[in-house]
Each structure stands twice: as C-alpha cells, then as structure tokens.
Write a structure and sequence with these properties.
Strand order of the largest sheet: 1-2
Largest sheet: 2 strands, antiparallel
Order of helices and strands: HHHHEEHHH
Number of strands: 2
Number of helices: 7
Low-confidence stretches: none
Distance between the termini: 23 Å
Structural class: mainly alpha
CATH topology of one domain: Arc Repressor Mutant, subunit A
CATH superfamily of one domain: Winged helix-like DNA-binding domain superfamily/Winged helix DNA-binding domain
Strand content: 5-15%
Helix content: 55-70%
Length: 169
C-alpha cells in the first residue's frame, strides 16, 4: 500500500465535521468577544429580538426565536440579573410580563454590534465579493438540504443496519 503523505485523514474529509469545526471555532471567537461585554454567545440574538419587538412578552419573544418559552426563561433570568433586561406587568393582562431592555441592555447591543462587525469584516476580508456571494449561496443550499433531510428523517421510521457496508455506501 502506497504511503500518501498529502492525503487528508478520513475524518477531515467529511463536510459535516468541517462545518462543526467551523461553527465551534466561530462560537469560541464570539464568546471571547462577547464575554468582554458580559454576555454569552446566545444572548445577543435575544437582546436584538427584544429591541426589535419592544415590550413583547416572553411567549412572543420565544415564538420569534423559534424556541420554547421555558428554554428562553433561563436566559432571560440571567440577563435580568445581569442588568440587561427588566420585566413589567402588561397593563391589559397582569398575567403577562413585558420584557424590556434597560440602559445597560442598550449599551450591550451597541457593543455587540461593534464586535460582530469586526468579526464579520474579518471573515468577509477572506473573500472577493463574487466569492462571498457564492459562499452565501452555497451555505443557503446546505441549509435547505439539511432542512429537507431533517423533515425526511423526522417522518421516516428508524432503520438499523446490521451490515456496516450498507451504511457506508
């Protein structure tokens, strides 16, 4: 068997792993930048949504973010404790709390935008405009294919292969 030193290890050839590695590295860069502001990587999206929806309820914010209100609750509590958010009762329905940004939350949004801009400009600087347009098109196609696959897999019965060769074809 010939020893090919230029060949990539098999684990580096899988597109999914490349995407995962890229996502992991990007998450680390974002966390490093956002940690200086006092935020975790998922929190800017929540802040931007609250800013956009202005005075929305937890349920409305969760629907916009496509998460459950229960999963959003923990983040909102942390962000409120950190001083980024405030809750107030809805005047028409006292069972509903409106979520609003504090002055500190607005400052955090401005700082996030600066950090995200720096990261985006660095990434965009790796490509010509034509390459960037192609990359975005490729990423959109990957996203669409994964959405379709996810829907197909959700609706398909579980299949367990006893022959490993069937899985690798």
């Amino acid at each position: 068997m010939a020893d090919n030193q230029n060949a990539q290890p098999e684990h580096q050839l899988h597109l999914g792993w490349k995407l995962k590695d890229l996502n992991h590295l990007h998450h680390g860069v974002m966390q490093n930048a956002l940690g200086k502001i006092g935020l975790h990587s998922g929190q800017p999206r929540i802040l931007f949504t609250i800013d956009h929806l202005e005075g929305a309820s937890q349920k409305e914010i969760a629907a916009h973010l496509r998460v459950s209100p229960a999963s959003l609750a923990t983040s909102l509590k942390r962000m409120q404790k950190a001083g980024f958010l405030a809750r107030s009762s809805d005047k028409h329905d006292l069972r509903v709390n409106k979520i609003e940004l504090t002055a500190q939350g607005r400052q955090a949004i401005a700082a996030c935008k600066k950090q995200i801009h720096i990261i985006d400009q660095t990434l965009k600087g790796c490509f010509s405009q034509q390459e960037l347009d192609q990359l975005i098109s490729y990423l959109d196609r990957i996203y669409s294919a994964l959405q379709t696959l996810n829907t197909t897999m959700e609706n398909a019965p579980l299949q367990i292969h006893s022959d490993a060769s069937e899985v690798n074809t």
